[in-house]
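A quick aside before the break. I want you to see a complete sequence-to-structure record at least once, exactly as it would be stored in a machine-readable document. Don't worry about memorizing anything.
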Amino acid sequence: MAVNSSRPRTRLRVKAEKRTRRPRGAAARPAAARRSAETNPLGSQIRDLRGARAMSLAALAEAIGKSVGYVSQIERGRSEISISTLKAISEALGVQISWFFQGYDPRVPEEHGYIVRREQRRRLDFPGTGIEEELLSPSLTGEAEMILSTFAPGARSGEEPVSRMAEQSGYVIEGLLELRVGTRRFTLRPGDSFRIGRGEPFTARNPGSVTSVSLWVIAPPRY
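That is the input. The structure line, written in tokens, reads:
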């Protein structure tokens, strides 16, 4: 989605439900309103990604210079959000602003939460590292998430081991993937699979001369 920086007043609106008095026995929320919320999940995406990043509401509010109440209203879809604020949230959560406009096709609302088409995958790039990750799961609210990880030849996750408070399993689709888990080192080839326990420090690297592609399953989601 292109953002025209020459129009700072442009706002992305999250439509709030009108609080009107309804007749006794009427439905609490019309089906049309439910469908609207399901196909405009900006606030819930922010909340879910914040949870996957293990960042508190207060920490996000502080990072973007807003009140906790305001961020809470955004996450619940009860307040409008400017492009500049969404950009600040994106930076605080470590994604491109385009993250919030991918993941589902608004023209097919019945697929939301169930299906991710190839062209709708959310992507996370790590500039200068040769690593790209694509979220294959429809959302970050489930018990696990699937990530397609692509390493250019020689690319590595970092010099220092990292650990996630989640169990990670994976399957190598193409190329080679070298894993260092604690003091152990493994080289995996296409068809090999692996598991890294919760909290175990690890690094990943492509030691080969061709691109490495692997499928990762992380439970619970820690993106």
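Two observations worth writing down. The two ends are 23 Å apart (CA to CA). Confidence is low (pLDDT under 50) at residues 1-40. We'll return to this after the break.
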